[in-house]
Design brief:
The complex is a heterodimer. Chain A is of the alpha/beta class. Chain A has 8 helices and 17 strands. Chain A has helices spanning 11-22, 37-47, 63-69, 85-94, 105-117, 122-136, 186-193, 235-247, and strands at residues 2-7, 28-34, 51-55, 57-58, 61-62, 76-81, 97-100, 143-147, 152-156, 160-166, 169-174, 179-182, 198-202, 205-208, 212-216, 222-225, 230-232. In chain A, the strands form 5 sheets. Chain A has a 5-stranded parallel sheet with strand order 2-1-3-6-7, sandwiched between helices. A 5-stranded antiparallel sheet of chain A has the order 12-11-10-14-13. Chain A has a 3-stranded antiparallel sheet with strand order 15-16-17, with no helix packed on it. In chain A, helix 2 crosses helix 3 (63-69) and helix 4 (85-94) packs across helix 6. The longest helix of chain A is centred in the middle third of the chain and has 15 residues, at 122-136. Chain A is elongated and about 65 Å long. The mean pLDDT of chain A is 88. Chain B is α+β, with helices and mostly antiparallel strands. Chain B has 2 domains: 11-420, Tetratricopeptide repeat domain (Serine Threonine Protein Phosphatase 5, Tetratricopeptide repeat), CATH 1.25.40.10; 471-678, Heat Shock Protein 90, CATH 3.30.565.10. In chain B, 74% of the residues lie in helices and 7% in strands. Chain B is built from 25 helices and 8 strands. In chain B, the strands form 2 sheets. In chain B, strands 2-4-5-7-6 form a 5-stranded mixed sheet. Chain B has a 3-stranded antiparallel sheet with strand order 1-3-8. In chain B, a hairpin with a 4-residue loop joins strand 4 (599-607) and strand 5. In chain B, helix 1 runs antiparallel to helix 2 (38-54), helix 4 runs antiparallel to helix 5 (96-112) and helix 14 packs antiparallel against helix 15. Chain B is rod-shaped. The chains are: A alpha/beta, B alpha+beta. Chain A: The modification 4-aspartylphosphate is found at residue 55. Chain A: Keywords: Phosphoprotein. Chain A: Residues 3-116 form the Response regulatory domain. Chain A: This is Response regulator transcription factor.
C-alpha cells in the first residue's frame, strides 16, 4: 500500500483523483488531501507520505515551492496539471511522472503500473533536484534526468554529444566517452531537447549543435562530432541543420 | 594662243652650283700631284665633275686622264664615276649620244659591281638625256625605272627627285593629271623629310608653279614661284633664279602685264648669258618674242625667234623649236607672209609630232587650219581642224579638268595625312594607345556596369519573387492553420452534444470517461495543429483516440481496424495532420450509424507507387446515395474544409493530392491520394 497525499487547490480535482485511486484500493492509501502549500508542507513533514499527487498551480503558489519547502524529498511525486506546456517540459526534463487533467483513466492506469515498479525513492530525489535546478538556472545550463535499465542518470545537457535511435531505445553519447541507453524513443528526446540546441539530423540521430566540429559537404554529408564520430546528415535535414549551425 | 617656254628644273641641276673656288683649289692640288696615283685620280675625277658646268671640254680632258689612271690602278668604281662625269660633260656641250655611251659604260661597271643605287642614278641620267632630246616617253621610262630602284633602296630624297622628273615628262606629254600627282607626291615627300628650304624643294615648287600656269591657275602659280625664287636667292643659285624670272615673266604676260613680263625675261637672259647657257638664252629670247607677238611687234618678234631658233637647233631641242616655228608662223601670218606662215606651221607640227607634244600638235594643226582657210584651201583646213579637235579631246576634256581637281584634293589630303603620320607618329601611337586604353576602360566599365545592373535587376526580381513566394506561402500556411483549427469547433460541438446525451440519460461515468477521452484528444489535436505534417504513427494515434471516443457514442458500436503497409516506416512517413478525420467521421455518422447491425470501419495506408500514398477509409454503411439531404449538408463542412486544405497544399507544395469518393455496393470508400513524403530522407 502506498501512503498517498493529494495536493490540489480545487476540490473537484481532489474528488476526481479520489475516485481514481479508489479504483486501486489495494494500491493507494490516501492519507490526506491539502488545498494550500503551507498546509501541504506541514502535512508532508508530519506524515512522511510515500507518494504525492501534486498540482502545479496551487492558488498563487506552485507545487515547486512546496517541493523546496518540505524537509525530506523521500517520496514519489506525480504532478497533475490542466494544461501547462512549460511545466510539462520541465517534468519531461526531469523524467518525472505527470497526469493531465481531466485525468484519463488509461493514463492513470499507466502511471500506477510505473509507480508499482519503481524501486527506490533515491531516483525521485535526483529527479526533483533536476527539476528544481532547471527551474532556477537559465535554459543554457539545463540538466536532464534519464532513466536507464538500472538507475536514473542526471546529465548536463551540454555534456550530451548526440543521441542515436536504437529501435525503441536511445543511445546517448556523452563527452566523457561514456554511452548510456534510455528506454525512451528518440522522438521523446527530440521533444525535450529541440529547444536546447539540439537538431535531428536524420531519422536516427539527434545531435547537440555545440558539439558539431565540422560539416563535410560529401555525398552523403556528415557532421563530425567532438568525439570524432561521423554522423550522417539526411538530405532533407541538411538545409535546416546548416541554418542552425550558422545561428550558433 | 601663247606657247611659253618654261624652265623646268631638274634636281640634277642642284649640283650645277659649282664653285669656281673649289675648281681653283683642285687645280692647285693637281699641279702638286704629278704621280699617277689614287690621289691624282681623285683630284681628276672631282675636277671633271666640277668642270661640267663651267668648262665641259676641259672636264672631258681631265676625265680621260682619270679613266686611264683608274684602269691602271684597277679602280673600277672611280673608272665608272669618271665615265659618268664624262656623260655629264658631253650632255652640257649638247653631245647627247656620246653622253648616253658614257652612261652605258659606267652602268655596265656598276652593274658588275652590283651597285644598284649608282645604277639607278645612271638610269636617271640617261633619262635626262632623253628628256633633253625631247623623247619624253623614253625619259619617263628611265625615271620610273630609277624610281623603283630608289624605292627599293628606301631613298626617299631620290624618289622625290624621280617624281619631279616624271612630273616634268608628263607635263611635256600633256598628261596634266599625272604630272600634278607626281609633283605633289614629290613635295609631300620633302615636307615629310622637313626638307622645305632645299634646292630640291624649290625646283619641285617651281615645276608645280609651271603646271599651274599651264592650267591657268595663275595665283597658285605665283605663290609657288615665289617660294622657289626665295630659296634660290638664299642659296645664291643663279640658274634657278633665271628660270624663276622667266617663268614669272610668263605669268605676267598671261596677266597682260607685258612690260613686267619682258623685264623678267631680260633678267633671266642676262643670267643665262653669263653662264653661257644656250637653252636658257634661247628660252628667254623665245618668250620675249612671244610678248612682242602679243604686242603686235612682229618684226621685233621675228628677230627674237630667229636668234632663239639658231640656239635651239645647236642643242637639238625639238619641243621648243616647234614653239618657235609656230610663233614665227603667226608672225608671218600677221605680216601677210601666208606661205611662209604655212611652211613654218607645217614645220612646227612636224617638230611637235617628233617631240610627241599633243598640245603643240593641236595648236600647230589649228594654225594650219587658219592658214589654209585664208588660202581658201577649205578641205585641208577642215581636215586640220578635225584632227586638232580629236587630239584636243584626248587631253583637254572637261573630265580631265575635273580629275585634276579631284587629284589635287586627294594629294592635299594625303599630304596632311603624311605630315600627321610622320611628325606625330609617336603622339599618334600614344594617342592610339590612350584611346585603346580608354576604350578598354569604357568597355570594361560599360560591361561591368551592365553586369552589375543585370545582377541588381536579377536580384531585385529574385527578391521580389522570393518575397511574393514567401508571402504566398505565409498566406497559405495561415490559411491551413485556420483550416486545421476549424476542425476543432466542428468536432467539439459533436462531442459536447454526445456528452449532453450522457448527462441527460444520467450515465455519469460514461460522461466522465467520455469527457476525459475528449480532452485528451483535444490536447493531441491542438498539439498537431501546429504542424502541417505529422508522421503516420502520430496521425494514426490521433485517429485511434478519435475512433475510441466515437465507438462509445454509436449505440450499436462498430469495429475498426487500421492497416499500414509493412513497407511503410510509420515513424518516417509524413501525412497532413488529421486529414482523414472528417471522412472517418462521415463514415461513422452517415454510414454505419444508420445500420442495424454492427459496422466495420477499415482504415488503410498503402504505397501506390514510389511517389504516392493512398490513405483510405472503408465503411459498410448505407452509402452516400442513401443518406438524406440534410445530413449531407451537415457533414459537408468537414469534407469541404479537407478539400480546401488539399487544394491549398497542392498550390503551395506543387503536389497533386486528391480525394476520391467511391460508392460501393455496400458502403462508401474514400481515398485520399497524397505525395509520399519522408520526414528524413534516406541518403543511401
Amino acid at each position: 500500500m502506498i501512503n498517498t497525499l493529494i495536493i490540489d487547490d480545487e476540490q473537484h480535482c481532489i474528488d476526481a483523483l479520489l475516485k481514481l485511486t479508489s479504483k486501486y484500493s489495494d494500491v493507494f492509501n490516501v492519507v490526506k488531501t491539502c488545498t494550500n502549500v503551507t498546509n501541504a508542507v506541514e502535512t508532508t513533514n508530519a506524515l512522511n507520505p510515500d507518494l504525492v499527487f501534486l498540482d502545479v498551480e496551487i492558488n498563487n503558489q506552485t507545487g515547486f515551492e512546496y517541493l523546496q519547502q518540505v524537509k525530506h524529498l523521500n517520496f514519489m511525486v506525480v504532478f497533475t496539471t490542466a494544461y501547462s506546456k512549460y511545466a510539462v517540459k520541465a517534468f519531461k526534463f526531469a523524467a518525472l511522472h505527470y497526469l493531465l487533467k481531466p485525468i484519463d483513466f488509461d493514463d492513470f492506469d499507466e502511471v500506477v503500473n510505473r509507480l508499482k515498479s519503481q524501486k527506490t525513492t533515491e531516483d525521485v530525489n535526483k529527479k526533483i533536484d533536476t527539476l528544481l535546478y532547471n527551474l532556477k538556472e537559465d535554459t543554457t545550463k539545463k540538466r536532464i534526468s534519464i532513466n536507464t535499465a538500472n538507475e536514473c542518470v542526471v546529465l548536463n545537457v551540454s555534456n550530451i554529444i548526440y543521441c542515436e535511435a536504437k529501435v525503441n531505445y536511445t543511445d546517448i553519447y556523452i563527452d566523457n566517452g561514456k554511452k548510456i541507453t534510455s528506454s525512451k524513443t528518440l522522438k521523446r528526446f527530440e521533444e525535450i531537447l529541440l529547444e536546447s540546441g539540439f537538431y535531428r539530423v536524420s531519422q536516427s540521430c539527434l545531435v547537440n549543435l555545440s558539439h558539431v566540429k565540422k560539416y563535410t559537404k560529401t555525398k552523403p554529408p556528415y557532421a563530425v562530432m567532438s568525439n570524432a564520430v561521423k554522423v550522417k546528415v539526411s538530405l532533407s535535414s541538411k538545409e535546416g541543420f546548416l541554418k542552425q549551425l550558422l545561428n550558433l | 594662243m601663247f606657247k611659253k617656254i618654261s624652265y623646268l628644273c631638274f634636281l640634277f641641276s642642284a649640283v650645277l652650283v659649282a664653285q669656281q673656288r673649289e675648281i681653283d683649289s683642285l687645280e692647285n692640288q693637281l699641279v702638286n700631284t704629278k704621280l699617277a696615283d689614287s690621289t691624282r685620280l681623285n683630284l681628276l675625277t672631282d675636277l671633271g665633275y666640277y668642270y661640267y658646268s663651267i668648262n665641259a671640254k676641259k672636264g672631258l680632258k681631265v676625265l680621260d686622264e682619270a679613266i686611264t689612271i683608274a684602269k691602271n690602278l684597277k679602280n673600277a668604281d672611280k673608272e665608272a664615276r669618271a665615265y659618268q662625269y664624262k656623260g655629264h660633260n658631253y650632255s652640257t656641250i649638247g653631245n647627247d649620244s656620246m653622253a648616253l655611251v658614257m652612261y652605258d659604260k659606267a652602268g655596265e661597271i656598276y652593274k658588275s659591281a652590283n651597285n644598284y643605287n649608282k645604277q639607278a642614278r645612271l638610269i636617271y641620267n640617261k633619262g635626262l638625256i632623253y628628256f633633253n632630246k625631247s623623247n619624253y616617253v623614253k625619259a619617263n621610262k628611265c625615271n620610273i625605272e630609277a624610281f623603283e630602284a630608289f624605292k627599293k633602296a628606301n631613298d626617299s630624297v631620290l624618289m622625290a627627285k624621280m617624281l619631279n622628273s616624271m612630273g616634268i615628262n608628263y607635263m611635256y606629254l600633256s598628261d596634266y593629271p599625272s604630272s600634278l600627282s607626281k609633283y605633289l607626291e614629290a613635295l609631300s615627300i620633302y615636307k615629310n623629310l622637313k626638307d622645305t628650304l632645299s634646292l630640291d624643294y624649290a625646283n619641285a615648287s617651281q615645276n608645280l608653279a609651271i603646271l599651274y600656269t599651264k592650267l591657268k591657275t595663275y595665283n597658285k602659280a605665283l605663290v609657288y614661284h615665289e617660294k622657289a625664287s626665295k630659296i634660290y636667292q638664299t642659296l645664291n643659285y643663279k640658274y634657278g633664279l633665271a628660270n624663276s624670272y622667266n617663268n614669272i615673266g610668263n605669268i605676267y604676260d598671261y596677266l597682260k602685264q607685258q612690260q613686267k613680263a619682258i623685264d623678267n625675261y631680260q633678267k633671266s637672259y642676262g643670267i643665262m648669258q653669263k653662264s653661257d647657257n644656250k637653252l636658257g638664252m634661247a628660252n628667254a629670247l623665245t618668250n620675249i618674242g612671244i610678248v612682242n607677238v602679243g604686242l603686235k611687234n612682229y618684226n621685233k618678234a621675228l628677230t627674237n625667234f630667229n636668234e632663239a631658233k639658231a640656239l635651239y637647233e645647236t642643242i637639238g631641242n625639238t619641243n621648243n623649236l616647234a614653239i618657235v616655228y609656230e610663233y614665227m608662223g603667226e608672225s608671218y601670218l600677221n605680216t601677210n607672209g601666208l606661205l611662209k606662215a604655212k611652211n613654218h606651221y607645217q614645220q612646227a607640227y612636224n617638230l611637235a609630232k617628233k617631240a610627241q607634244s599633243l598640245s603643240l600638235q593641236v595648236s600647230a594643226l589649228e594654225a594650219l587650219a587658219t592658214v589654209n582657210k585664208q588660202l581658201k584651201n577649205y578641205k585641208k583646213a577642215y581636215n586640220y581642224i578635225n584632227e586638232a579637235v580629236k587630239l584636243k579631246d584626248s587631253f583637254n576634256s572637261i573630265e580631265k579638268k575635273e580629275e585634276l581637281v579631284r587629284l589635287e584634293e586627294k594629294y592635299k589630303y594625303q599630304n596632311e595625312k603624311n605630315i600627321l603620320e610622320n611628325n606625330h607618329k609617336q603622339e599618334q601611337l600614344l594617342f592610339a594607345n590612350e584611346l585603346k586604353r580608354q576604350k578598354f576602360i569604357k568597355t570594361t566599365y560599360l560591361a561591368g556596369g551592365g553586369i552589375i545592373l543585370c545582377f541588381i535587376v536579377g536580384l531585385m526580381v529574385f527578391y521580389k519573387k522570393k518575397r511574393d513566394a514567401d508571402f504566398n506561402t505565409k498566406v497559405a500556411t495561415t490559411e491551413l492553420k485556420a483550416l486545421r483549427a476549424q476542425m476543432n469547433p466542428h468536432f467539439i460541438f459533436n462531442t459536447l452534444n454526445a456528452i449532453n446525451n450522457y448527462v441527460v440519460s444520467n450515465k455519469v461515468d460514461d460522461a466522465s470517461n467520455y469527457l476525459t477521452k475528449f480532452s485528451k484528444l483535444m490536447r493531441q489535436t491542438l498539439e498537431v495543429s501546429m504542424y502541417e505534417n505529422i508522421t503516420i504513427e502520430e496521425d494514426v494515434k490521433l485517429l485511434e483516440s478519435y475512433l475510441d471516443i466515437e465507438k462509445k457514442r454509436i449505440p450499436n458500436g462498430f469495429i475498426y481496424e487500421i492497416i499500414i503497409d509493412d513497407s511503410i516506416d510509420k515513424s518516417n512517413v509524413l501525412v497532413p495532420s488529421m486529414i482523414m478525420q472528417p471522412f472517418v467521421e462521415n463514415s461513422i455518422w452517415h454510414g454505419i450509424s444508420k445500420l442495424n447491425g454492427s459496422g466495420v470501419i477499415t482504415i488503410q495506408i498503402k504505397k501506390i507507387n514510389n511517389k504516392q500514398l493512398c490513405y483510405s477509409v472503408d465503411d459498410n454503411g448505407v452509402g452516400i446515395t442513401n443518406t438524406n439531404k440534410m445530413n449531407t449538408e451537415h457533414t459537408s463542412l468537414g469534407i469541404k474544409i479537407t478539400n480546401d486544405r488539399i487544394s491549398v497544399l497542392n498550390k503551395t507544395k506543387n503536389i497533386k493530392a486528391k480525394v476520391n469518393i467511391i460508392n460501393k455496393s455496400l458502403g462508401t470508400r474514400v481515398e485520399v491520394i497524397l505525395p509520399f513524403q519522408l520526414a528524413y530522407l534516406n541518403n543511401d
